[in-house]
Amino acid sequence: MKRSSRLARGAQVIARQQVTAELRQWIVAQATAGQSPEDVLKAMIASGWTEDVAAEALEDTLKGFLADHARANGLPQPVSVPEPMLTGGTNRIWAGDREVQVVMSMLAPRVVVFGGLLSDAECDELVELARPRLARSETVVNETGGSEVNTARTSRGMFFERGENPLCERIEARLAALTRWPVENGEGLQVLHYTPGAEYKPHYDYFEPSHSGTPGILKRGGQRVGTVVMYLNTPTAGGGTTFPDVHLEVAPMKGHAVFFSYDRPHPMTRSLHGGAPVIEGEKWVATKWMREGVFA
Ligand code: PD2
Ligand code: ZN
Q1: Best substitution site from 127, 153, 190, 200 to test ligand 1's pocket, by max atoms within 8 Å of Cβ?
Q2: What is the DSSP letter of 186?
Q3: Are residues 37 and 121 in the same domain?
Q4: Are residues 282 and 173 in the same domain?
Q5: Nearest alpha carbon, ligand 1 atom 2
Q6: Minimal-distance CA residue to ligand 1 atom 9
Q7: ω into residue 109 within 30 of 0, thus cis?
Q8: Which ligand is nearest to the CA of 187?
Q9: 99 and 60: one domain?
Q10: Same structural domain, 42 and 102
Q11: N or C: which end of the chain has fewer CB within 10 A?
Q12: Could you report the per-residue pLDDT of 200-233, keeping only the tens digit for each?
């Protein structure tokens, strides 16, 4: 090919890297037709866009579209959330010190199930560290921001401080790498123990904005935007984590975990979830909640 025609072709590609109103409309049309962001990105790359320019145009356009949609519909504005690097049909992710399996994922609600997030020895050690400190689980009292025993939650539980011991520190660093969310934005790990009949009725993990206790809670790190529930044993029967809006139930398996995120404190995230009653055996989980900002 002659040098001049190669240059002309290059210029054409550069010119096409302009993010025009027409391109933005096309991106929004693809997204509203149900195309995943990964597929839209692939289509852009296939038609000559460089990956970084295309990814930025896509992210910018979708953010703007979601913000406009929220404003027009009286919804809270969406915020950035933790998100594992799950492009191109990945079935494994490197989580800093360990490879983790991707067992299943869904977009709305954003839910990802991981296998092999914790080793059996890590699960056992966490249970033994938590066991002597268990007390009847409490839930947040929305009016005051304090907490109290509640019949919706019949497990026993305890909280570790963030980085309280080397095991917590290692798991927290792994979760931060896996979800691409800073360790500093995480609450300390919570361990829950359920015996037969015990359950956690469906709820949202974000703090309800209309409740009078919420502004006080939000002073420390803002809203919760993501949750990882890690299974520390395999109950004999029951104890799944349910997502009633989409009729999904995640089976608790030792070392597996379910991650879900919610980009605003609103039921439209479909992040309603619960712990189904344990039918036989016991159930141990460790929960990590992630905040928008630094949880100091
Ligand atoms: O133990 C569970 O499966 C479960 C279900 C719902 C835990 C939580 N929520 C939680 O810790 O928020
Ligand atoms: Zn929950």
Answers
A1: 200
A2: B
A3: no
A4: yes
A5: 275
A6: 274
A7: yes
A8: 1
A9: no
A10: no
A11: N
A12: 999 999 999 999 999 999 999 999 999 999 999 9
